Amino acid sequence: MSNSEILVKELADKYGRNRESLMPILQDVIEVRRYVTDEVLVSVAKELDLSAAEVFGTASFYSFIDTKEVGKYVIRLCKTIVCDMKGKDAIIGALESTLRIKVGQTTPDKKFTLFTTNCLGWCHKGPAMLINDEVYTELTPGKAIEIIENYMHK
Amino acid sequence: METKKLSRVDYIFKPETNCIDTLKKVMTMEKEEFILELIDSGLKGRGGAGFLTGLKWKLAAEAAGDVKYVICNADEGEPGTFKDREILDRVPYKVLCGMALCGYIVGAREGFIYLRAEYRFLVPKLRKAIADLNVEFLKIGLTFSIDIRFGSGAYVCGEETALIESMEGKRGEPRNKPPYPVTEGYLGKPTVVNNVETFVNCVIIAGIGHQEYKKFGTDNSRGFKLFSVSGDCSKEGVYELELGMSLQDFVDEFGDGDTKAVQVGGASGFCVPRKKFPDTIIGFEGIPTGGSMKIFNSSRSMYNVLHNYLEFFEEESCGQCSPCRVGCQQLLKGIVAVKRREKSSPYLDELMKLAETMKVASKCGLGQSVGNAFVSIIENFREEIVY
Amino acid sequence: MSKMINLTINNMPVSVEEGTTILEAAKKLSISIPTLCYHEDLCVAGNCRVCVVELVGMRTLQASCAVPARDNMQILTNSMKVRQARRHIIELLLSEHNADCTKCYKNGNCELQELSNEYRIGNRLFADLVTEKNYTIDQSSPSIMKDDSKCIRCQRCVRTCSELQAVSALAVSGKGNHMKISSFYDHPMHEVVCTNCGQCINRCPTGALIERNYIDEVWEAIYNPNKHVVVQTAPAVRVALGEELGYDPGERVTGKMVAALRRLGFDSVLDTDFTADLTIMEEGTELLTRLKKALVDGDTSVSLPMFTSCSPGWIKFIEHMFPELLPNLSTCKSPQQMFGTLAKTYYAQRKNIDPKDMVSISIMPCTAKKFESVRPEMRDSGFQDVDYVLTTRELAIMIKQAGINFMQLEDDKYDRFMGDSSGAAVIFGATGGVMEAALRTAYELVTGREVPFANLNITPVRGMEGVKEASIKIENVKADWSFLEGAELKVAIAHGLTNAKKLMTAIRDGKASYHFVEVMACPGGCLGGGGQPIPTSPEIRKKRTEAIYAEDEGLPIRKSHENPEVAAIYADFLSEPLGHKSHELLHTHYKARKRY
Fold it and tell me: Does the pTM exceed 0.90?
């Protein structure tokens, strides 16, 4: 068994093999691996006796289930209106130049992926971003760079 | 029309000391009696759609079946809304007790919180509260247990049937209605889906009684509600206010003195221009809201605001029904084309008609409400879109 | 009786049973409401919204396909509000659809085109969304082409693949503006778990899913003076081809079809039915041999029940989904492939033609046959046994291209050599037909008497039930078959792969036991095949079924073993069923394929 198969099997043992276990399994895979691969989705399809296309179709519906490779730290900067008004473009600029990547890309060392995302629910403290599950609010370009630099040393 | 002055109240965030006692009290009542209490309170769902909560519970209680579910909709994704996060962070016990109360009334033994992925940081706190309460429930003889399920980044899952689909391991695509969740919900069983704040209100009503509760608000909009205030304002944050105030009062309190417009109800709500502030009531007799209040001052371009909303909807439509999937793309493309002079301004009228079609022909509330922001912004700020 | 609901539609009162949708209620008043995502064979989706109607008193319009009629509803199907919305929706769908109709394979048989025409959509209101999306056409499969630029996301294909076929090769992926119909990770269709059954094609309202067509290749062959082109026609083609050429469903056009094929210029017009009869001889013998080995010789390695192997969609299904049951499959090639091999051996020798100068064409109700013909195993003649497979639809196109006035044609007859068949072969085209044909022969072989059913019609194996079971008691057998004395032969029949899956699961799990099982990939059997005329519906398939059985009853020979050409080929060429030569030419093997 490959590592993916073992991981998925363990998760299926934990959550069960009904269809309603699909999201918890995928979410846990994301927690461990940060993204899903075709190998993982095939394993899930096998464990849950679903078609692989259907598992892929479901996974691809959800923005937080990345079906393509992402870095160790996934940055999701809120782009919705209030964060936009509060200067999210400047934050993007700061992040892009610090990480030397564009939105949607992953750093060559696979450490960071930069995404924009829809409303994070921190409008009163925008601009806001998530790095994996951690929330960072009231960003300024300087603060954003500082946060990223801390992650660089992690 | 009945209106109220803007007034702050403090019920929702009041320390949660006696939730369990409230539960115990309800458990001594006839279930029908409490349902009547809830109906009489006039409480409408706090997620935005505003269905009478007591009636929802009544229907679920009457639905046939041994297995029923209670789901707390914590998929707060409407742009400009963050009050549910605040509730879950500050008074999680009230939410959980509200769910248990619902479970008791409708005859459900299992409850789920559907928590949006963006709020995962709340999990440790919620898990602890759940563990505590699962024990407390047993102590008072209430068979009810709560678990957390997660969203994974999909705004449309805030629509109750999409949420249920997602919990069932599927794409979060809204279902055809009828049947409604109260008769056929999660796994085909009768299910109550209520917003976080609604459950808290139920506990409050159980505590203070519907007579006391009804003193707040207006005929059509009973009680108080949390408002998520953001944008160009003097004091952003979450505020608990009595329902029925005029938008003018609201702006006077929260605006920065230069308020041009307020978007009431988030991206799926309505944009109100300055001249209409005095005549706009916040509530079901005016503009209902799930709590999102975004304030724009005169430095803001309403074109940018609309563009931002449409980008949001273009991505967050589930994509299954054609008016919403294609309509969102066309509205966005349309305003860009008008701005760039690729289309003449009468094209906006065509888009307005399209927005009307989306309002009446889309499958779910999301698609039906995209037109709200579009129409209200074009109607009031047409020149900003064209020039 | 269930409760009756009274409502009005366009101010006309109508009374319908509880649970009836508004759409169905309107039909009762002869009011047709346009639909796109709705299909009689599939569950209701309610996502295209073209069928919206006004419910007086409601702000929002209602999807008539999804909303059940309720008492006192006042429905308007053509109010200004409805017309405006419907027009917008058609416009929207057109804006994300590559509406280059004159270049489209489905031009003239496209539901979106029809609707757009009905609403006289002229200048496009909205921006073109197709050009920016960089669509590519998936032509990887030898059977099915997928062109996302023509897809209107109605999900009929998705529902077909999951509800009718239990395969789900296609699913909905992405959301919002990225929502589309995808295979697993959008891998090419040829690489994913797809049975090539083509049921999705039958239900695609536009040209997003079509067959890989080989019309030009066949014309090339016909007009190549150095090639001898033979054509075979499957049983189910003759009861459906007429639908493409002016007839109502259920018309038998065998004679006209033969005449048309001759006019098209094929050098020899032959009948797959001949090898269907041969299949019965081989498969029947194989079954009896397996039974003997198991019952008399106590050979535990024999796999029973034996499964039929005529349907290539079913073959690929079992290879993917139930590889552990592959030994149960009959080793017989399908009639098409038996025919192909014999065309380039038996026929070639008889006619003194070098098989390398032959082109072998088959006309099939099926898209999976296209895949089957290019399987590497299917080259026992030393060449690709069947060069091109055309669907019923492609044949109709050729007939139209050739300017043949089909309805005016005089009936013609198949060529004599490899053109004779029995009624047993004809019924291969309907679910239960192979079983019935096999029983007619096997029973008689074993007992010396005809099957004990009036007029040879074994009705228990007929009909549209998803899984059918039957048993036949075998008594007073001939001496050679004494081991079968008193045995009860248990059989089962499934059509549509969802039913096949149910049946296979029961067999695999030991919850059902049979001796012989017939499976056809498509609903109704080949007559409902993925290469048959579009549209399809339960009603249309019923008509075709009736035609098939009528064709059977009209034929002088109704048992495979009585086909004189079958006797002749064993005498002159093959020597005996399951003999050495048969093994070499008429039997094959299967391979397990990836499950996911």
Answer: yes
Using a CB-CB distance cutoff of 8 angstroms, which residues of chain B are in contact with residue A88?
none
C99 interfacial to chain B (CB closer than 8 Å): no
What domains does chain B contain, in order, with CATH numbers? 19-214 (3.40.50.11540), 302-386 (1.20.1440.230)
A: neighbours with 3+ CB pairs under 8 Å?
B, C
Q: What average pLDDT is seen over chain C?
A: 97
Instruction: For an interface test with B, give the residue of A76, A80, A131 to mutate (most B CBs within 10 A).
Output: A80
A35: closest CA of chain C, how far (Å): 14
- Written as one letter, the residue type at C317 is F
Quick check: C168 and A53 CB within 8 A? yes
Structure tokens that stand for C519 in this block: 């499976």
Domains C4-92 and C215-274+336-408 share a fold: no
Q: Residues of C with catalytic annotation? A: 283, 286, 310, 330, 369, 372, 377, 526
pLDDT single digits (tens) C90-108:
999 999 999 999 999 999 9
Q: What confidence tens digit (pLDDT) does each residue in C186-209 have?
A: 999 999 999 999 999 999 999 999
Q: If DSSP codes are grouped into helix, strand and coil, which group holds residue A90? A: helix
CB pairs under 8 A between B and C: 120
Q: Does B304 touch chain A (CB under 8 A)?
A: yes
pLDDT band at C1 (very low <50, low <70, confident <90, very high): low
Instruction: State the Cα–Cα distance between residues A142 and A54, nearest whole angstrom.
Output: 44
Q: C154-181, pLDDT tens digit by residue?
A: 999 999 999 999 999 999 999 999 999 9
Beta strands C171-173; C144-147: pairing state? unpaired
Instruction: Count Cα atoms within 13 angstroms, Cβ side, for B288.
Output: 16
Q: Which residues of A touch C173 (CB under 8 A)?
A: 56-57, 60-61
First to last CA, chain C: 46
* Residue that has been written with the tokens 């005549």 in this structure: B279
Q: What is the ipTM of this complex?
A: 0.96
Domain locations in chain C as residue ranges: 4-92, 96-211, 215-274+336-408
In this complex, do C184 and A56 lie within 8 Å of one another by their Cβ atoms? yes
Give the Cα separation of C375 and C381 in Å (integer).
13
Residue C442's pLDDT is what? 95
> Which tokens is B123 given?
């999990």
C215-274+336-408 architecture in CATH?
A: 3-Layer(aba) Sandwich (3.40)
| Fold annotation for C4-92 | Ubiquitin-like (UB roll) (3.10.20)
Angle, CA of B285, B288 and B289, to the nearest 5°: 160
Q: Where are the beta strands (DSSP E) in C279-327?
A: 306-307
Cβ–Cβ under 8 Å, residues B353 and B143: no
Residue A85 touches partner B, C-beta closer than 8 Å: yes
pLDDT tens digits, C486-544: 999 999 999 999 999 999 999 999 999 999 999 999 999 999 999 999 999 999 999 99
pLDDT of residue B24: 94
Structural domains of chain A sorted by starting position, each given as residue range(s) with its CATH number in brackets: 3-59 (no CATH), 73-152 (3.40.30.10)
CATH for C96-211 (2.40.50.1000, 3.30.1360.120, 3.30.70.20, 3.40.250.10) = 3.30.70.20
Does the distance separating the beta carbons of B119 and A121 come in below 8 Å?
Answer: yes
- pLDDT tens digits for range B280-321: 999 988 998 889 999 999 999 999 999 999 999 999 999 999
d(CA A36, CA B222): 47
Residues of C (134-163) whose Cβ lies below 8 Å from A: 162
Give the CA distances from residue C89 to residues B174, C155, C503, in Å, rounded to whole numbers and listed in that order: 19, 16, 42
What are the beta bridge partners of residue C511?
none
A120 touches chain B (CB under 8 A): yes
- What is the least distance, in Å, from the CA of B317 to any CA of chain A? 10
